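Lab notebook, bench 4. We co-purified these components, and the gel suggests they stay together. Before we commit to crystallization screens, I want a quick structural picture of the whole thing.
Request: model the full complex, all chains together.
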Amino acid sequence: MKLNGAEIFVQCLQEMNVRVVFGYPGGAILNIYDEIYRAKNLQHILVRHEQGAVHAADGYARVTGEVGVALVTSGPGATNAVTGLATAHMDSVPMVCFSGQVSSSLIGNDAFQEADTVGITRSCTKHNYLVKKVDDLARIIREAFYIARTGRPGPVLIDIPKDILTQKTEHVYRDGRVDIPSYRPTVEGHTGQIRRAVKLLQKAHRPVIYTGGGVILSNAAQELKEFAHALGAPVTNTLMGLGGFPGTDGQFLGMLGMHGTYEANMAVTRCDLLIAIGARFDDRVTGKISEFAPEAEIVHIDIDPTSVSKNVKVDVPIVGDVKHVLGKMIELVGDAAFRKQKPDYTSWWNEIETWRRRECLKFTQDDKVIQPQTVIKTLYEMTHGNAIVVTDVGQHQMWAAQFYAFDRPRRWLTSGGLGTMGYGLPAALGALVAKPDQPIFLISGDGSIQMNIQELGTARQHRLPVKIIILNNSFLGMVRQWQELFYGRRYSETDLSDMAAPDFQKLAEAYGAVGLLAERPDQVESVLRQTMETPGMVIAEFRTNRECNVYPMVPAGAAMSEMILL
Amino acid sequence: MRHVLSVLVNNEPGVLTRVSGLFSARGFNIESLSVAPVGDGTSSRITMVSHGDSQITEQITKQLNKLIPVIRVVDLTDGPHVERELMLIKVAAERDMRAEIMRIADIFRSRVVDATQVSFIIEVTGGSEKLDACLAMLSPLGVVEMVRTGKVAMSRGEKRT
Ligand SMILES: Cc1cc2nc3c(=O)[nH]c(=O)nc-3n(C[C@H](O)[C@H](O)[C@H](O)COP(=O)(O)OP(=O)(O)OC[C@H]3O[C@@H](n4cnc5c(N)ncnc54)[C@H](O)[C@@H]3O)c2cc1C
Ligand SMILES: Cc1ncc(C[n+]2csc(CCOP(=O)(O)OP(=O)(O)O)c2C)c(N)n1
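Here is the predicted assembly.
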């Protein structure tokens, strides 16, 4: 069958079972849009800004585990997409982004709306392509999807010159399978290494399991639970790993790192064996490297060899897929001989209990001002922990991580690695497109929500019932916190109290949403109830304690045991 | 420590940018680089010299391997290997100096590949030190200009690069 490039684009998406594309049209991709107009079974969500398209595809990917798809035009369309790609790249989100490009003959001529998109996105994608011949298009699309979802997932960009879209070539349907000889991720862990790891487990008295986003990316929450329960060791998650292990499980210590719990950070500092699973020893987690888990031998399971021994020297690296490796380890740990020899953890748990009694997340209630933590805690209770929670970046993000316990994976969407303000709203919309029947809450700040606020238009147009909770402290709160603690309280350019935010209730009205406001603690529950019960889009603003800080906090560069506690 | 990495890649557009871009993006230094297609032309061999402790080099090697078009990365400094580079030197060849220049060229087993009334171009190949030494000898005679390739290298014996 002879097809042109634009038709091949649609055919290949169908081959990959893509149901929805997030995008924004423009001159260079008009031919694709013309095909989308005709295509059946392909939903297109028109966003308001290309950054929104990419974040929405990212949100879609994180809740489903499938490859998210974004479509943008050349030049400014592509440059607008960059922050979205970098965000997805840092958090290993599977995604394919298509960008239009000027016609092949014009490339390099400073043509209208030309940008060197492949050059610009090279370091913020897992891989990228410039299509040179229409004959290559189908192969490139198949490879891109394969690369995006296998190994350590990530975004792949395909830049398609306009002339390629009209040229024809023979197209044959394929099942999407591809073979790239120079790209063969290691899935199965080395058996010898797994045995060495289990030997260390056999003699450890104070083990800690430290897990990250890799558990979620690998769909290995069940295996992790079995493994942790078989071993009986404490578990801590990174910000990206939340939901990988049940937040309500007795073995869970909470998040570790800069704003992690006292018990998690102390346990990591004191452990004699650290079992890192799909986590990359980020500096927000390790603090001062030389004092990170100083007494421990370290086992590290990760599919990406570059994550291993990058920041922290590892004793037993196991390169492979978490699901696969844990499957094997569960067998060995469940073995009767292992269980008989395994040291008793009673005194270790006793030590942990003393740290837990410190109640590091305790905060004082106030009957005049709303404490931001209360809003999250109440939301948690009222939704019975069953909501999908999306955040922006800042204090509200950390409180959401601390006070909303996730028992299941893929219900927590946050920009961890890049920390992109403005991620939340479009990501929540992408999640809603994927899971229209599930309660989805965006927790944002008065600063962050203004960074992609144009996407309210997308929500309105596509009838996406997003529930937006704005914790309004009239500050760029997280930055203010650093200024308070480390810059002598000089609040340079972080005070948003003087007309720096819109009237959110009027804004809601302008977008056909319901706007709610809570100013006193006794209104929190009722406003949250209305938020949940009102159909359609809701913007609920909570005026909170302006100078509340996120604690515990490990100052940048300090050891994890040097936490500032409330 | 100094490392010589031999990187086999798919010979496709942009591959060199991916490799060199990786070094700059991660703050690794490249001291020298040489690249040319090998075999039937579907792959290319990049030889690069870089400095860093073993942890940095391990990370560079892993990062290179992670690039999709990279087929294989070998750190040649792990074992015995041969390193060569090539230098072209243009020397001002005044009448009375010509014999002396030829003599020096001979000592270094180099060849005169271009001769005019006013200059010679001498081609020297070998290890860095030999090239440096040759250059040092010719300098006083009036080197007009000089170009040098990056290093190419290969494992000795049975080990494949
Ligand atoms: C304001 C702010 C504060 C923050 N504070 C904290 C904090 O206190 N604590 C904290 O933890 N984080 C914090 N972060 C987030 C932090 O910056 C990092 O994003 C996070 O710690 C990284 O999580 P991770 O190690 O799970 O890695 P991820 O980025 O989730 O990486 C996943 C790892 O798993 C591997 N992997 C992927 N797929 C598989 C598979 N199938 N099998 C095996 N391995 C796989 C990958 O190779 C990678 O190494 C903060 C961020 C912000 C914006
Ligand atoms: C795009 C972007 N610009 C700047 C920052 C730096 N930054 C981190 S947190 C923060 C303040 C966020 O304020 P707000 O959204 O109101 O949340 P709060 O901390 O008050 O809860 C800023 C400016 C960032 N993370 N992302």
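Residues A 91-92, 152, 212-214, 217-218, 238-241, 255-260, 278-280, 282, 284-285, 302-304, 307, 321-322, 393, 397-398, 416-417, 419, 478 surround flavin-adenine dinucleotide (ligand 1) (CB under 6 Å). Worth comparing against the SEC data before the next meeting. Chain A has 22 helices and 20 strands.
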